[in-house]
Amino acid sequence: MNEYEEMRKEIDIYLMKRFKYRLSLVRLTPDNILITRRNSRLDLYLRIRRVESIFPPDCLILAQISFRKERIGNGTHFVRFLSEIALKYGFRYVGIESTNKKSSSFAKKLGFYSIDGFNYAISVKNLLSYFQDRR
């Protein structure tokens, strides 16, 4: 099992436990994108990128994340989990792609910096520090 498949498995287990699913939710596409099966509680689209693009290299990019129940901490909890996954697998950044008003506010709240007004990134070190300071 390669590292991307290991990441898929860990994220899948996290989501299954957090949202009480019995069946696998996450699959890995051939171009290293993790996506969830369409369901009523959550939607996830996560790009795994080692090369530089508009985002820095070694970046886990949240292209889409939504939860049926909003503003109860699911997004923050997932980003905290994602920062730990990023650290474990040697990623140095987490990004949020193509934000809208809600997701850009969320990114700013967590300390992400704006790349171009629509895309945000933060170093894993800074993100872990953000969560450490709030314990």
Automatic annotation (TrEMBL):
This is GNAT family N-acetyltransferase. It comes from Jilunia laotingensis.
